[in-house]
Amino acid sequence: MGAPLAMASCRKRRAEGFPGYALVANSEGHAVAAVDLSAFAVVRHIRLDENPTVVLAHPSKSLAYVLTPESGTVHEIDAGTLSHSRTARCGHSAAGMKLAPDGTALWVLAGGGRSLVRVPLEEFTPDVRIPLPQSASDFAFRPDGGAAAVVFGGAGSVGLIRLGEGRLEREVRLDNPLGWLSYRKDGRLLLVGNMGARALTILDSVRAELLVHLPLAVRPERYCFKSDGGQLFISGEGMDAVVTVYPFRTEVAGTFLAGKSPGFLAASEATEYLFVANPHTSDVTVFDIRTHRMRAAVSVGKDPCFITVTPDDQYALVLNRGSGDMAVIRLAALSRRREKFAPLFTMIPVGSSPVSAAVCPA
Q1: The pTM is what?
Q2: What does the pLDDT average to over 97-101?
Q3: Which 3 state secondary structure label does DSSP give 4?
Q4: Nearest to 307 by CA among 341, 331, 288, 290
Q5: pLDDT category, 3, cuts 50, 70, 90?
Q6: What separation, in Å, do the N-terminal and C-terminal C-alpha atoms of the chain show?
Q7: Concatenated DSSP letters of 279-302
Q8: Cα–Cα distance list, 279 to 140, 224, 321 (Å)
Q9: Does residue 276 contact residue 267 with C-beta atoms inside 8 Å?
Q10: How does pLDDT run across 282-310, given as a tens digit for each residue?
Q11: CB of 170 within 8 A of CB of 208?
């Protein structure tokens, strides 16, 4: 029996799926596609009255939340029954949605960006509305949940909000068109994508003071953090590269080539890979975060625009807006390869113009 056992032990292990679903927002399909990640197949299209753009997973339950911005409505999806369960109307339109740091509520940038609206997950009825003096384009929470910041992109300013008091406390003018913003992981600094200056602008989030402008080789259009918050990766127009910033040193670490016109970015946690979508060439380049060396290039579908990694760090899910499908990359296959090109694990048709996804346990 020794030989058969030895042969069995040398066989390639079959990949195991994730016990849950990827819920995919199809921005032109009036639906959320439910992809069974144990079978890697769409099992249901959950119909909505409007086109969804954002999907977020509940931090501890088999639930997801979907934003339909045209009516400013949030929809709760039960991942256990794959059905639409509750609805909350936040305003006549919405520009974004995020989970509160403690995971007990959603906040929606509603009314054309003129208010922040809180939706507690238990009651699922808006209970707090913070008016804003002008239209905001993005917002972020301090990690302790005590404060938030909003960016008035067209006006070139950042507003600081005390959530407990429900009001805008002060505003910092930067006099340049602004994009996204995010708190540093310790909450002491605000990092702002300064589009007009092609820089990363860093503010003291307590004193509301400008600390530094860090010039970048690219326009700061997209960003993501390493899981521990120690590195920030930025991509955008200007160079076929990704810029690395050390937020705790407030300095640019370097710039590395990352394919043709790098776009959306995502990072895995345990394996420490950086995934870079290249819409012009329909592929994703994968880098080792520790060395910034390319691990592999993976051909995906047309116009890859969103990437998320399953909670078990087994798979990267790439949404291809142009071809209407989801490419699945198996992370274990990347670590074993010596070639610079890696095959896809599978490709799954999901619907019309997928733009966002969240992974929920079954």
Answers
A1: 0.93
A2: 97
A3: helix
A4: 331
A5: very low
A6: 39
A7: TTTTEEEEEETTT--EEEEEE--S
A8: 27, 17, 9
A9: no
A10: 999 999 999 999 999 999 999 999 999 99
A11: yes
Rounded to the nearest 5 percent, the helix, strand and coil shares of the chain are 5, 50, 45
Do 68 and 77 form a contact (C-beta atoms < 8 A)? no
Q: Quote the CA–CA distance of 174 and 177 in Å, as a whole number.
A: 8
The residues pairing with 135 across neighbouring beta strands, listed in sequence order, are none
Sheet holding 265-267, edge to edge: 265-267, 273-278, 283-288, 294-299
The phi and psi torsions of 172 (rounded to 5 degrees) equal: -110, 120
Mean model confidence pLDDT for the chain: 93
Burial class (CB in 10 A: 0-12, 13-18, 19+), 114: middle
Q: CA–CA separation, 297 vs 252, rounded Å?
A: 25
Compute how many other C-beta atoms are within 10 angstroms of the C-beta atom of residue 122: 7
Strand order through the sheet with 20-26: 41-47, 31-36, 20-26, 354-361
In this predicted structure, the answer to whether residue 171 has a pLDDT above a threshold of 90 is yes
At 113 the three-state DSSP class reads coil
Q: Residue 312, Cα to own-chain centre: how many angstroms?
A: 17
Q: How far is CA 161 from the centre of its chain?
A: 23
Distance between CA atoms of residues 359 and 362, nearest Å: 9
What tens digit of pLDDT does each residue of 12-58 get? 445 689 999 999 999 999 999 999 999 999 999 999 999 999 999 99
